Amino acid sequence: MVFEHFALNVQNIQDVVSWYVSHLGLKIVSRQEEAPFMTFLADSSDRVILELYHRPDAAITDFTAQHQLTFHVAFVSENAVSDRERLIQMGASYVEEVKKEDGSHLIMLRDPWGMPLQLCQRNKPF
Prior knowledge:
alpha/beta; four-stranded mixed β-sheet; 2 helices; 8 strands; globular
C-alpha cells in the first residue's frame, strides 16, 4: 500500500487553506468549490497530501482542547527558529521546543485555529 492522503474536517476552510498555502508553502492540487469544499494540499515534494474540508454535520476536532501530542502536523524545517518567528508573526502561537541529544531541534506551534504544527529541524532527516 502507498499512502495517499490524510483528511481533516475544519472550521473556516477557506481561511485555513489560504494560510497553509501562503505560510507553509503547500499547493492546491485539487479543490471542490462547493460544500464540503474538499481541498487537497501537497507539500513541495508532491509526496504528502493533506485534505482539508468542512462538514458541519460531522465532528470537527477542537484542537485547542487537546494536548499538542495527541495530534500534530509536522514539517521539515531547515531553520526552525526562523520559521517559528515567521509563523508567529503570521498568527501561529508558540507551544514548546525540544533540543534532542542528536542535535535535532523540534518546535511545536499552533496554527491560528489551534491545530498543532511541529517544525522539525533534524540532524538526520528521515
